[in-house]
Amino acid sequence: MKKKFIKLFELFISIAVSVGFIYLFYVIIGFDKFVSFFSQLSIINIFLAFVLYTGSYITRALRWKIVLSIKEFKKLFKITAFNTVFNIFLPFRTGELSFFYMLKKENIPFSESAISFFSVRIFDAISLFAVFGFSFFLFYSKPFFAILTLTLMPFSFLVLRYIVSFLKHEKIKEFQNTKLTLKNISVLYVLSVFTFFLKFTAFYLILPKGVDLSFIQAFFASAAGDLTTILPVHGIAGIGTYEGGYAGILILFGVDKEKALLASVFVHLFMLLGAAIIAGFSYLFLRK
């Protein structure tokens, strides 16, 4: 009964966040102005953005190839596409369960899928904080610290790996020795960082001409938006929470409120549609 109440409360919060943001957007921007910005979208930029966004799925699929016994790229891409779309649209990170379900269908034991999953998610977190720090320092015109952040962040995983090495679990030790070699750790980190660079560059390209953000501003905001995915509660399909991170960081650093909100909505819409299209393609053409 208590768990059911908590779930209902979380659902209520998610709906309230999304509805609250839509109302706030209507008051500040208005739907008429939002629609008028669609005429400023570039078809070429949309195409390039989708290519880059698809590229971020490819780099994510390549990471699974390193940590899983599945080596067929089509299967890994399909798993990545479905897991991503479920994560985006389902509340409270329940979409992550799709990963274990799909690997079970591929006869991958839970011990392997769980260790691989948490390892890659740790790389997600480390690389996201690295990219956020990188864009933060570039935002303040400090390229040396930006490069230093990207260079030093992977060492945090090496520290974590050292701590975990004290665990006596046989499967974890085997995974560390065979999968988490220094070479694989380096490749996983580079692929993770590159994933965010592809994704955030795509988000910059999708902005209409009237939303005059610089590349660094848009990149920094995208990193902040992605950081909201670690929150325990999100708006429905991330509506409200993602925009809060994206637009909020820009407004905090002095960017025009209207410009920041418009940018956040266009980016989030592209992400939702892009994820749905890629998952639909995977369902139609990569099922077998």
From TrEMBL:
One of its GO terms (cellular component) is plasma membrane. Keywords: Cell membrane, Membrane, Transmembrane, Transmembrane helix. It is a multi-pass membrane protein. The chain crosses the membrane at residues 12-31, 37-55, 114-137, 144-167, 187-207, 260-286. It is found in: Cell membrane. Its main location: membrane. PANTHER family: UPF0104 MEMBRANE PROTEIN MJ1595 (PTHR39087). This is Lysylphosphatidylglycerol synthase TM region.
